[in-house]
Design goal:
Blueprint lengths: L11 H5 L2 H15 L8 H9 L25 H6 L25 E6 L5 E4 H7 L3 E8 L4 E11 H8 L7 E6 L19 E5 H4 L5 E6 L2 E2 L9 E3 L12 E7 L6 H5 L23 E4 L5 E3 L7 H4 L14
Parallel strand pairs: 1-10, 4-11
Antiparallel strand pairs: 1-2, 3-4, 4-7, 5-6, 5-10, 7-8, 7-9, 11-12
Helix pairs in contact: 2-3
The structure holds the ligand Nc1nc2c(c(=O)[nH]1)N[C@H]1C(S)=C(S)[C@@H](COP(=O)(O)O)O[C@H]1N2 and molybdenum atom (MO).
Amino acid sequence: MFFKRKRGWELPESMATDESVFLQRRKLIKTLGAGPILLAGAAPAAAAAKMVDPTADLYPGPRNETYKLDRPLTAEKDALTYNNFYEFGSHKKISEAAQKLKIRPWSIKLDGMVEKEIEIDFDDLVRKMQIEERLYRHRCVEAWSMAVPWSGFPFRALVDFAKPLSGAKYVRMETLADKETMPGLRQFWYPWPYTEGLSIAEATNDLAFIATGMYGKPMPKQNGAPLRLAVPWKYGFKSTKSIVRFTFTNKRPLSFWQVIQKREYGFWANVNPKVDHVRWSQATERVLGSNKRVPTLLYNGYGDFVADLYKDMKGERLFT
Ligand SMILES: Nc1nc2c(c(=O)[nH]1)N[C@H]1C(S)=C(S)[C@@H](COP(=O)(O)O)O[C@H]1N2
Ligand SMILES: [Mo]
């Protein structure tokens, strides 16, 4: 059943204005109203104005009601403060460190087996797409989960835009790797940049989503601004953050986690409660923001959308 609750961003003023500016302005009004006018008053306002995301007007997009949740949405503060983003550290509390990520200008390359290589600015790309909102579950391979309102556009629309050649079978995604702003890159034993891959059949499936926002606002840096993948029937590590490159290829790409430990992480990585990780059970998951454990579902509950993709695959390691 879909759990209905009032969304904070439906408030008219916070919807019209980027929240950071909204809060700054309130503070400023308070300061001005309080009597002594502080000389510094104008400076934070100017700084705040610069912080407005140039795509803020796109959010929240209209909700696509095809995708229902069977559980409450995760509180925004939990989804924004408990993250996996190894470029900023191999632990969950990277949200502050991730504010160093520079998300403008942001250029995206579409290359490999395509009619013509494309390099496009994120702001141009996102305005070619129809932004919509989808409520998706997310299941990390570490057995925690969340349910979030993503905004973005179908991966299929990006594949159409890229015009892959008919021989292309896979698409490889690559995350930015910037030593200046990403302290995690000092862990030189990891195979940076973070990369992942999908088959073209998966990428053009209805569920595969390029998320450019969440909770009705542009994507927070720690969650993979300005664009990341959301493939909710797969373990979370497939959902590549802060993507700078999509490469179309006829060879199955090796992903970051496969290179690190191929015994534990495979290419398909579909969620299955009956197939344990080498070191722990996948039968249940901890719901983020609580200590509650709930049963994990086959394909994370999205079998109706994706099970057909795999029905003829024999001898493939589909679930780890
Ligand atoms: N570039 C990059 N993308 C990444 C990761 C990462 O470390 N680096 N972690 C993955 C994992 S394991 C998960 S569970 C999700 C977490 O997304 P969230 O922080 O928005 O919850 O991002 C995925 N995408
Ligand atoms: Mo994960």
